[in-house]
Fold these 3 entries.
Entry 1:
Amino acid sequence: MRPIRPGDRGPAVTEIRAVLTGLDLLSKATGPHSDEFDPATERAVRAFQQSRGLSVDGRVGAETWRALDAARWRLGARTLYHAVPVPLTGEDVRSLQERLLEMGYDTGRADAIYGIRTSRAVAQFQREVGLVPDGTCGPHTMGALRRLGRKVVGGRPQWLRESDAIRQSGPTLVGRTVVIDPGHGGTDPGVVVADGPLRWTEADLMHDLASRLEGRLAAAGVRVQLTRGPSPETCLPDIDRAQLANSLGADVFISLHTDGHANPEAEGVATYHYGTDNGVTSATGERLAGLVQREIVARTGLRDCRTHAKAWDLLRITRMPAVRVEVGYLTSPTDRERLIAPRFRDKLVEAMVAAVQRMYLPIERDVPTGSIDVSELRAAVAAGTVVD
Ligand SMILES: [Zn+2]
């Protein structure tokens, strides 16, 4: 075939330009349906060739055409598998490889070829999220990738180990270690509201909540450790709290706070997991925070102030899935009234136990938010079955 070259016109050029535009190599403003191989098209072809390791001549010969054709595929548009003797190639394969590499799986170089190594990496991923490890990337695997791997995990391989450990250890809570961190304490009372009926401080209230949570988790066979007692002499810095959790080899870390604001109308629950502004996040921390957030909102009716990524010491230094929960505003009359009711704190506890349990259900067997009855769940786990 004669290479398509600068100055050519025709439907083939329109097609080439469409693929290059889809790859962001050609500006959408340059005439989306033009059939002219203009200088901008030539520049885009060259950039494409360079990025694919092809010889850069600004023309579309057989090799460049094949590469452009492969570049059309968007991840999720087709099922990917290890085909022999001619392997599948395409931009979707490259996206998959990049995503797996980011998550710490060894696919080899992201070369856009679905070879045996990519297939093995997919199978390993599948095993870890509880899917059939067949090495084929179909809708279920794609869904799991979307839910777990959307954000970057690179640079912090322990996050991968976190999810490894979670998947390998099964759904039971028995024998796990959860560190609960009631915020503040000692010389630091946290948020204080002068006119509170019982003059609750954030520090006291969160210690009470932590004790209730400790009781429920311990009843489910969890080893629980609090980072402080009810009235410590000094306030332990967050770094020390995080290091305590690390030294105990905790499986989950939950830090409990209430929020406060000068505006009494500010109210609601928010959760925080480790992450930075440029999209780096702890995938398991984000999952834990999301579960805690959704369970609390569903079970208590607190306003949903959502889940956020923060690079705070507490979240950065902890090596296990870690969440900081701000269970309402002590400065909001509405939230305060709820929080000082022991019954309401029990609801919060129920929500957090359900969230911790859901962390350990394989994604495929996860249950709708607000649906776990924790006592039934314990019975099911004890009987060796999982609530579906
Ligand atoms: Zn606080």
Entry 2:
Amino acid sequence: MGHAKVISLEEFRQARVRAEVRQRLHERIDRWLDTVEGRVKGDSPTLERLTQEVFAMRHELTGIVTEALVEQSHGEAVEQQTMPCPHCGRLLRARGPHSRTVETMVGPVRLSRPYFYCLRCQEGFYPLDETLQLSEHRKQWDMQKRAASLAAEVPYGTASDLFSELTGLSFSDHITHEVVGELTKGLTVLSVSPTAEEIEQKVAQVAEGRKWRPILVLAIDGADVPTRPETAKGRRPGRKKKRAKRARWKGQWREAKGFRFYLVTGERIVHLLSWHQVQSDEELAEALRQVKEAGLIPKEKVRLCVIADGAKWIWKHVKALFPSAVQILDYYHCSEHLHKVASVQYSDNPEKETEWVEATLTRLFCGEVQAVIDGLQGMEARDTQAAEEIRKLIGYLTNNQDRVDYGFARKGGYPIGSGGIESANKFISHVRLKRSGAWWYVEKANQMLALRCAKYNGTFDRIFEAYRQRVGQSPRRPAL
Ligand SMILES: [Zn+2]
């Protein structure tokens, strides 16, 4: 019976605290409403005018509601008097309370909480901050996440402008840079890839009700990225003015090598995963190897095919990693090569030029690559330039003989064009990186590419959570 009485006392205490918090909240809300009323008094305000004022003031309201909720759900941490030092076990007494204002998507939240300092270990603690899992930044995780997401789509300056326009809150491009840098630190292909289960689920969805295993395409290609050299970094002392007038470095176009896995069903593409970086072909092959070894590609459940242009390094890695995949030379790249020959060989006869390209493509389509090669060998070159182009095309078709059987590919339902990777190049790389006047340090370009891959692979939430865990658990600076 005594036990029951203790519980009801505790319940009584909690109810009292709750009532007090409520009471204070109601008073603050009343004051808030008074302020808003004062601002719209006298006019016959339109709805727009009313919402404008409420919008301008709403963060104050949602902020104070949040403060009340913190008080209510963490009363103990707010009123804590002692704590043992987590390192040496000494009992520490509360100092303060100290107040700290953090910024969140619902506005500024003011926290008043005790502070503990261990003289022996020379470290300070705010138990409430730990409980609430606060970010050390004044801008909290919810704002950081949205700012990073926005910066993945538009330039940093625009992201910052949009942020404040849409939310009424400020988030500078400088801090966004910082967050993106930290968020993308150490990302690899596997950290931005969906899990094997997620991929298998998509495969199963596409396979449902179909007789044949779905076709899974691996497309590999490069996209041009405007880069600036490392030497453009920093300022040399005394030359600031001169540097401001004219950049002393030269921009350079470099290739972001990337790959994309996707499912093809009829005309539709189901995206699985993309990975694009300014990187060497060995690095790209290494990323592919990781994808394969992590078991992300359900080989038994799909028909795997690889589409790429004629670059030898690509096929070397493909053969080593996916020896049983159907290999297809991208149709459009192939026809570009045909056009090159035709334009020099028939430079005086555009009609003949078109006719030859179409006839040759048709023959490739019918699986007559050997006949095309024979024909090229028998061709009488118009001049030395034409001879050179013909020679190159013969080499190209000979090297890729098994990859240009477009008729066979079409019959099997395989795509023959690498439209899937072209569009990935566009929506992952070009859309964000190729902007007038934008030249990227390779490191920054790769950070942005990794971030965009995560977004389009559907793993942005996951990488943000990993960042939060990592940064949130890093050793704290001694608190002031
Ligand atoms: Zn201690």
Entry 3:
Amino acid sequence: MEPAARSGGPVNRTRLGELTARETRRFAAAHPRCAAAHERSRRSMPGGVPMSWMAKWAGGFPIAVAEAAGAHLRCLDGHDHVDLCLGDTGAMAGHSPAPTVRAVAAQAARGITTMLPGEDAAAVAEELARRFGLPAWQFTLTATDANRHVLRYARHLTGRRKIAVIDYCYHGSVDEAFATLDRSGAVVARRGNLGPPVAPELTTVVVPFNDVAALERALAGGEVACLLAEPAMTNIGIVLPEPGWHAAARALTRAAGTLLVLDETHTLCAGPGGATRADGLEPDLLVVGKAIGGGVPVGAFGMTAELAERIPASVELEDVDLGGVGGTLAGSPLSLAATRATLAEVLTDATFGHMVELGRRWEAGVAGVLARYGLPWHVTRLGCRAEYGFAADPPRDGAAAAAADDFALQTYLHLHALNRGVLLTPFHNMALMSPATTAADVDRHTEVFDRAAGDLLG
Ligand SMILES: Cc1ncc(COP(=O)(O)O)c(C=O)c1O
């Protein structure tokens, strides 16, 4: 088991406890309607939430949303919030962007799901090919599904059993990825891994991010079908690649006959073609999801021309619906209409410029507060996504990022922000900018973060 996290530097724990209790009382007093909605929900849903992880919001119960539009969200109690969480990237295009809403409404009126292609599918595939440089695409309902399918194809095509993942990665609810390294370097289940189908060491090899020698050792036995990795880690805070990591990972995977899969679901924040385009990366397969549908469920995976030929050639037509790759609603007209409009009119090259600029502003605001109070924390940014962490220096791998985690401190900071109308992603300290986010939204966070730090140290 990983220990419960607690770092945070010069934070007085008694004061932290008192402040969290104060903020919890304030939250409850300001949200009677949200509390009542939660009470009702508890009678029909475990934890009172439609999906278990929604219980992780600070405050004891989640706010219930009355309406979300652009970069703002209003709860049942009528409070306006700047939404820097944006559905943990699902709403990176902003809530209900007008072009997506129009396309969804038009498509909903002429067929929501058909299990047949329309014209939008090829248009989306062509646009993804233009952005990411891979020519052939398939569509799913979620990025998790896209990852699962890619792992199956990788094992199928290489005839190898194992998958390599990065220590402390997250790729959705993908069984192979819930593995970490224990102190002796052995592969073990991640803390919280529910009912793993088999022991993770049977399916998975784990490599610390930025550790070229470890990757070389992991691939040396020739039993790894693919390396599944984010271009930069985004789910344990942001951990950026060191110079040389990507070139080495590409060269080592090629030499070992291991496919390289880049999961750009979150790192799309780096630009319109993700980190792959921004940094000239050359994956064999690429996964993307969440944001590209403007909030409508969709996932996609792209592949090289060679793989696009080998896959259909290696599967009997009679078996294509039975191989563990699929999903009845995958590639639905509704998903693809939403994705076409979102890519063409919302998450465009031009809007990324605005989003990245705001990411810089958020980063500078947080850095200013840390400097003012002498807090030994850091702030990191990847395009329009930024994040602070409770260690003086940015971590170079997932284990270092996890060691700097501090759940109690994070809970206080999130709740303090929530009480003042700013939503941060519950799982860590991430802020994301959408095309609809404004400089005033960012400055509101800086102001609130300043007060939280002042209360903590004052
Ligand atoms: C990098 C990455 N890949 C895949 C996923 C899975 O996305 P979804 O939950 O939409 O399937 C996530 C979810 O957070 C993610 O962070």
